[in-house]
Amino acid sequence: MKLSNSRPSRVGRNPFVHKLKFTMTEKIKIGLMSVTVFPVRLLLVSFFMLLAWPFAFAASLGRSEFVIEPQSWWRRLVDLCLQVIMRAMWFCGGFHWIKVKGERAAPSEVPILTVAPHSAYFDAIPVTMTMCSIVTKLESRSIPVWGTLISYIRPVFVFRSDQDSRKKTVEEIKRRAQSGGEWPQIMIFPEGTCTNRSGLILFKAGAFIPGLPVQPVVLRYPNKLDTFTWTWRGPGAFKILWLTLCQPHNSMEIEYLPIYTPSDEEKENPALFANNVRRLMAKALELPLTDLSFDDREISLSEGPLRIQDYSSLLEFNQLVCRLGLRAGARVKVLEEQAKRAGKLQGDRLGLQDFGQFLDLPVTDTLAQVHRLFDKRGDGQIDVRHFVIALSTVHRPSRSMETLKLAFKMYEAEEDGDVREDDLAAILETMLGLKEVELSGVFLSLDRPDTGTIAYDEFHHFIEQHPRFVMDHLNFEDHPGRGCCVRRERRNGHNHDKDD
């Protein structure tokens, strides 16, 4: 695949990975704090959380989750008590003072607060300080003690088991936002997941669909040692709690930015609205924009000997197929059926109209964009087998061997089941996101440099025996340990000319 001009050729630091490194001095400090301060802090934090529970439980009794009710004097008193208790809890956890910049707008003026970056469960601090509603999964209210506190702030629950969950969630946000301040403000983390704060990933559109003014809120953790970040690959929840409670002091800054009022164009286009607010917040944070989303995390975190090396083109492809509705329908049976049909074409190249017929989709701008990704020759024709391989890769990025087996079925010769060397190079280029893959090292290692073909079982066994297969046995453009590769010549003197 090739990148369009609208995307960078590579993505920077992976926002879904967090690695902690400690100096010897820091290790000694953590060791001392673990046997002195940590147990005391943990006991106090637990005490205040348990103390908050009866207040939240009593105030939640008999209250409707769907109908707004006047806030009685005693519930306002409970609000105040809970804010004091929760602030004491955070204080005992080392958040001795929390710097707040700017001024929070009134609910009647701004119904939605958009908060970023979302990187830790300590991001709950501004929620407990304001008692705003949040958007959270339904399973959250089943968490002992904490679930009662979550239910008290009347969140918008997401029913993940419901196929229409996203639509219903957006409708509920819109209903509350248009209540004229009768409902509490909704504090939304539009990234939709936790990252390592290296940049702002793409915002989900839910907070921006109502087309009403929003107030951006940015969070900072100025500590030199980042023990807060809780993302997809990194320290677990308890380790983060332990390390954070072992710090002498934990700093946090909350900044309320000026209210952002959408233009008429932004009201009609929530994605544009979201992106413009994201740019504003990134500027305030002095962070780059990262062209990744929650849905891209599996691709960027692929593992195994055939893990994706450069996921830029596959991310663009994934976004396009999601817009076409193909990502959700990429079940194993569907992929196998497409692979069977693609194999029967035996490399016949398809134009845009034929490609649409292959997928049973009308020709649209999005379909044309997908088609262009695989048009390596620039002649408006593609090998649809490359599309099937890419679709299988983004559907199951951590199960690369299954994709490899599917690809072999499309390319293998009928007489012996082998795949040619140049076809295997094309398969690996698509799966790994690489350019100009050259396999002479593999065939030399197999002591069969002159055959030019290989069977799936033999190749699979070779990969299993070499966990660093990509780095040690492939030549490709921008290889970190070599210069750009030059394709070796065939035995008949002609260069490899892949049918891309």
Fold and architecture overview:
The chain is built from 20 helices and eleven strands. Helix 11 packs antiparallel against helix 14. With 500 residues, the protein is of the alpha/beta class. It is globular, with a radius of gyration of 27 Å.
Q: How is this fold's topology laid out?
A:
Elements: H1 24-35, H2 37-60, H3 73-92, E1 98-101, E2 112-116, H4 125-130, E3 133-137, H5 146-152, E4 156-158, H6 165-177, E5 186-188, E6 214-220, H7 237-245, E7 252-256, H8 264-268, H9 270-285, H10 297-300, H11 312-324, H12 332-344, E8 349-350, H13 352-359, H14 365-373, E9 382-383, H15 384-395, H16 400-411, E10 419-420, H17 421-432, H18 440-445, E11 453-454, H19 456-465, H20 469-473
Parallel strand pairs: 1-7, 2-5, 2-6, 3-4, 3-5
Antiparallel strand pairs: 6-7, 8-9, 10-11
Organism: Scophthalmus maximus (Turbot)
Protein name: Lysophosphatidylcholine acyltransferase 1
Subcellular location: Membrane
Structure at a glance:
The chain has 500 residues and is α/β, with parallel strands linked by helices.
Q: Could you say how many structural domains there are in total? A: 2
Q: Please state the second-level CATH architecture of the largest domain.
A: 3-Layer(aba) Sandwich
Query: Terminal Cα separation, in Å?
Result: 9 Å
- Shape from CA axes? globular
Question: CATH topology of the largest domain, what is it called?
Answer: Glycerol-3-phosphate (1)-acyltransferase
Main sheet, how many strands, which sense, barrel?
Answer: 7 strands, mixed
Integer-rounded radius of gyration: 27 Å
GO molecular function: 1-acylglycerophosphocholine O-acyltransferase activity; calcium ion binding; lysophosphatidic acid acyltransferase activity
GO biological process, one term: phospholipid biosynthetic process
Pathway: Phospholipid metabolism; Lipid metabolism; phospholipid metabolism
Pfam families: Acyltransferase (PF01553)
